Amino acid sequence: MSSPKPPIAARKPHRSTHHATVREDPYHWLRDPAYPEVADAEILAYLNAENAYFQSQMAPREPLVEQLFGELKARQQPDEAAVPWRDGAYEYQWRYADAQAEYQVWSRWPLHQPELAAVFLDEPALAQGHDYFDLGALAISPSGRFLVYAIDTDGSERYTLRIKDLQTGVIAMEEITNASGAIAWANDSHQETAVFFYTLLSENWRPYIVKAHRLGTPVATDATVYEEHGAFFVGLGKTQSDAFILITAGDHVTSETWYVPAHAPTAAPTLIAPRRAQHEYDVEHHGAYFYIRTNHRQRNFSIVRTPIAAPAQAQWEHLIDGSDHLYVTGLTCFEDFFVVEDRIDGLDQIRLCTYDGSEHRIAFDEPAFEVSLGTNAEFKTAMLRLDYESMVTPQTVFDYHVEQRSLETRKVRSVPSGYDKARYATQRLRVRARDGVEVPVSIVYRRDFEQNGNAPLLLYGYGAYGVAMTPAFSSARLSLLDRGFAFAIAHVRGGDELGRRWYDDGKLGKRTNTFNDFVDVARALIEQKYTRAGRIAIMGGSAGGTLVAAAANDAPQLWGAVVAQVPFVDVLNTILDESLPLTRLEWPEWGNPIESRAAFDYIASWSPYDQIRRQDYPPMLVSAGINDPRVTYWEAAKYVAKLRHEKTDDNALLLKVNLDAGHGGKTGRYEFLREVAEEYAFVLTMLGVD
What we know:
- The protein has 690 residues and is of the alpha+beta class.
- Helix content is 19%, strand content 33%.
- It has twelve helices and 37 strands.
- The strands form eight sheets. An eight-stranded mixed sheet has the order 30-31-33-32-34-35-36-37, sandwiched between helices. Strands 7-8-9-10-11-12-13 form a seven-stranded antiparallel sheet, with no helix packed on it. The protein has a four-stranded antiparallel sheet with strand order 3-4-5-6.
- The longest helix has 18 residues, at 41-58.
């Protein structure tokens, strides 16, 4: 019986002109003009045909998918629960009710009385009847009586806010729709008329306005607290002290912050420091001062403080400076100390500082790890909760006792099917890129791994927006390591693993450094005999999909398989289109090809869709979400259609379009794992690994 033929998308004339350059795009028609609604019959027929072809090609691999899914599922603790945390008069906890549960239930109890635990939010019940479900946020009023929670049931990231009275169990009839999911309660003393703040989305998915809702009043009468008329995205939060509501406006490189006293929710917002190009800052509070993390003097950020009564930049007093080797990444103020999260030569650090000037760091034994603040709801505390993991250490929750300077282990995520840390090894390598820059690589493998140049290897990367890929643990990854793989993360330029210079050297006119670093890391791993050409699978999502697609164009002979998850591949067309949700926000990251001919030409020189050429390509699995507001479904669809037309090989090229999901793919802990199992099955079969 002959194998099903892949779908061939029609080629239809479409011409655009920018900077006197005429470009043809015969697959432009795959974008539904009614988007975000996708109802065009021809488009849906093509997407369904791709899904049918994906299923037909994966059918022979279904036993392997099921085997992998069984392995991945067996590593999940059936009744996993969070370490309880204190917030006001209650302790809180989420947990999975049983082995079949896809979603969590949330409960609380009065302090020191766990026998009185009561469920206040039941995600499985909320998710019932929906193919997609995401709890975007939940926030409980200072009195402890009212809950606001945000849910998304189609993957569009347009959340609905619901209000629940935890005393009566009644959910308010009126909902708030089209929300971004950000919520912050004011400190009103009147429970039944308490106020919370929230943000709404524009038609282009930009959080642009902050509203205040008073319980018991119609949503239609909610006051506008702040509205952003430019291209900036609006954020909303609250200081750790609970004293101030914070409203932020910014893009990838510039920000400003306004504050409203939490006890006076009708007060007009006050600006701390006006926006200035390339200046980013965020704000905390203690006593009479705002504490601020800012890059106005040091590109790797500093900590300053300023009087609340006169917060302008002229009053800023410097406390801590970053440096070329020290990157200040976070700041949280508590009553008796403040915590600075930073990164020294790419490795996470936690520093505790007293308000009189003394400080110390928390020491950890492993050479490479990820550590960050966990759930710390209380302002007055003598204990700090931390989340810790490494490529060989499962997710661990520590309580750090500040006076004793001691770590207490509260939880190590279990791997029920068995995990022996001693069987695995991890390293932090440095490899030299073609321009002489040393690129960090995190790698993990079993101790019996044969470094003889023949082993399979999965290389992962991202490299954009100043987002660091940390050396984290993955129980799913064990299914590769136990089959002889090494797994490596290339910490390429464009992320901020080594500080803001590392980020700046992979954006705008230096974007190709990211792609070159990735290819050069692969070649170095081949040279060091971790693997060989054709035995490397590469994987990346979103902007990481840009990376692996560019690598497939530039060095196709190196890769045995490519997994591009919701890839941003039609870069030039997307950021030429101001009608799309994120376009204007993206210009500081990628360049503005509308105004700049140089940016237009440079992006065209590397944009994966534009650079598809007549050559052999490795086997590829590409995914998309039809409701994805970040990377639209047609990017992956156009990319695969053009690849099918241009490539000169018979290697597998599969497109999977989630018709009921968005950027993050399937929800639910097991549904997500099934997608991982499919990706791993594709990689294993393409690399010829049993």
